[in-house]
Request: fold
Amino acid sequence: MIGILLVTHGPMGRAMLDSAEMIVGKQKNVQAVALTPEANLDTLRQEVKLAASRVDAGQGVLVLVDLFGGTPANAVASNLPAHAYRCLCGVNLPMLLEALETRGRMALPELAAHVEEIACQSVVNLNTALERALRGDMPQVGKR
Amino acid sequence: MANIALVRVDDRLIHGQVVVKWLHHLGCKDILIVDDELWGDDFMQSVLRLAAPPGVRVHVAPTQGAREQLDRIASQGVLVLVKSPPTALALHRSGVEFSAVNVGGMAAGPNTTRLFKSVSATQEQIAALLDLQARGVRVYFQIIPEEHAVDIQGLLHVRGSVPPSASAPAVFPERPART
Reply:
């Protein structure tokens, strides 16, 4: 099973995981690492490394980060050359749900590409979608 | 020499607060990171360059090369980032002119004292801040632009890091705010 690691500013990752588990049930090989106000790039780097090794069951780890350019993303980036992880920034609930639901069916590079695609489809303007639906033109949105 | 918009001590260098808050606030298109360790680490330089928003140029210099690097940057406003106060002090000693230092983030660690919100410092770092102040540089704590800046005067007395009022109660907000 591919491990999933969330790395975020504060408790967002943990909370997102709780929300996801409300929908898809308790999950294994998943962990959330929070950047605390007291941490810096080096301490977070170590935490990410440790947490990634904990969720890695041998098939690799998909790391989901909240904000590109933030310290969580920078800490993950600094770990990437030494580890075969894949990382996507801009995590949202549809991405996390898709990763959890499909990680048993594909290898890490495909999972990362698939979740990236879901991410791009996951932001939906509900007004536009409804207007289209009312015109009989079904909205082209992601599976969820 | 390029005009320095702000000298900031922040051990995370380029990150959310700097990108979202300070760059917008200052309107800077150039960041100069002065750090000897980073100067020798091409990979981490790439990571930090990537972290900057599009259109913002990231320059890196060793402490002793910062002055020359600033001469080469043709910009009206450079955000200078350093991880620790001794680097800011060394910069000032090397002839880089600036009148103020913004202390915005220093993680707690072994032998650090918490000075302000998410700013903790060792005695060596505190000494460097006081040295800067003695050189006529205004040293102030401010995490994001919307907050009030708190000058170093009084703060160190309150924190008991500097005699004589070591027993005075802490009056600064206890809750750290940092993104």
